[in-house]
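Preliminary data (for renewal application), fe (iii) ion complex.
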Amino acid sequence: LRVLKDKGIVSTDEMRRVVEEIYSETPTNGARVVARSWVDSDFKERLLNDAHSACGELGIDTSDINKLIALENTDSTHYMVVCTLCSCYPRPLLGQPPIWYKSFPYRSKAVTDPRGALLDLGYTPPEGIEVVVIDSNADCRYLVVPRRPAGTEQLSEDALVKLITRDSMIGVADALTPEENEKVVVD
Ligand code: FE
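Predicted structure:
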């Protein structure tokens, strides 16, 4: 970017706008998609069949991603996403990837010892569940739809959004229960 600026190709203001756009994308977009899928089973079906157009229904532009696929975590299958080569990530939905996602220990251990990699991040998947590791790449990015926590049947879609963490949409955690959410301190 500095080279572009020094050569007068882009101005400081243009650069600032691009950087702000990149960082303005937050996991909230992904959480909105997941919450809608929890409350609307028809939407969930559309999401699992064609994630691009389902996100578009919520005004989220995923055209930067060549192929976006949503994977639903169930009581029998737990998906977790890694990019073994670099740090491919569904940025329009989740913003910037966390440091650990880009780290070599996560990228390698997710493949050789997925449960160990999850434990390193403080997560133990439910007993007896099959953990499936999905390798993201430049062509294909994934959004995990976490299991809907018990005791959330009465919650509104907006209240559900708050339970859906970034990590739960990478598949390295579960969505928060309402009780856990109460304890989260936002700094
Ligand atoms: Fe990558």
